[in-house]
C-alpha cells in the first residue's frame, strides 16, 4: 500500500526542492560562524595597514578560512538568486539564460577570489 505522502516524502514539486533547501541551510550555518570571524579579522587586519593586511591574509589558517568563507558565501548567493529567478521569471528561455548566467557569474567570481587569496598566500614569503 502506498500513500501519497510516502510518494512525495523528501521531494518538492520539482523533485529536488529538499536538497536545495538543505544546501541553503548548510551554507547559512557555515556562514553563521565564518562571517563573524571574517568581520573581526578584517577589521583588525586593516588597522595594521596594507602590509599588515597582506601578512594577515598570507597566514595559512587565515587564507584557508578566507577561501571557505568566500566559497560558502558565493554558493549561498547562487542558491538564493536561483530561487528568485525561478520564482519571478515567467518566460522559460529567459529563466534558463539567467540560471546559466548566474552559475557562470558565481563560478567566475569564485575562481577570481580564490586565485587572489592563493596568490597572496604563496607570494608572501617571496
Q: Keyphrases for this structure?
A:
126 residues; mainly alpha; 3 helical TM bundles of succinate and fumarate reductases; 5 helices; 85% helix
How would you characterize the overall build of this protein?
- This protein is an all-alpha fold and 126 residues long.
- The chain has one domain: 3 helical TM bundles of succinate and fumarate reductases.
- It is 85% helix and 0% strand.
- The chain contains five helices and no strands.
- It has helices at residues 4-8, 17-47, 49-58, 60-88, 92-123.
- Helix 2 (17-47) packs across helix 3 (49-58), helix 2 crosses helix 4 and helix 4 (60-88) runs antiparallel to helix 5 (92-123).
- It is elongated, with a radius of gyration of 19 Å.
- The N and C termini lie far apart (69 Å).
- The model has no long low-confidence stretch (mean pLDDT 89).
Amino acid at each position: 500500500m502506498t500513500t501519497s505522502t510516502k510518494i512525495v516524502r523528501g521531494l518538492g514539486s520539482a523533485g529536488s526542492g529538499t536538497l536545495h533547501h538543505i544546501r541553503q541551510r548548510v551554507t547559512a550555518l557555515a556562514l553563521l560562524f565564518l562571517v563573524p570571524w571574517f568581520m573581526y579579522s578584517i577589521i583588525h587586519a586593516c588597522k595594521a595597514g596594507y602590509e599588515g593586511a597582506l601578512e594577515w591574509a598570507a597566514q595559512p589558517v587565515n587564507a584557508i578560512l578566507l577561501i571557505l568563507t568566500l566559497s560558502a558565501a558565493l554558493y549561498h548567493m547562487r542558491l538564493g538568486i536561483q530561487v528568485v529567478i525561478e520564482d519571478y521569471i515567467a518566460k522559460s528561455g529567459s529563466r534558463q539564460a539567467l540560471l546559466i548566467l548566474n552559475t557562470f557569474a558565481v563560478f567566475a567570481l569564485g575562481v577570481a577570489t580564490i586565485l587572489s587569496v592563493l596568490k597572496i598566500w604563496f607570494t608572501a614569503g617571496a
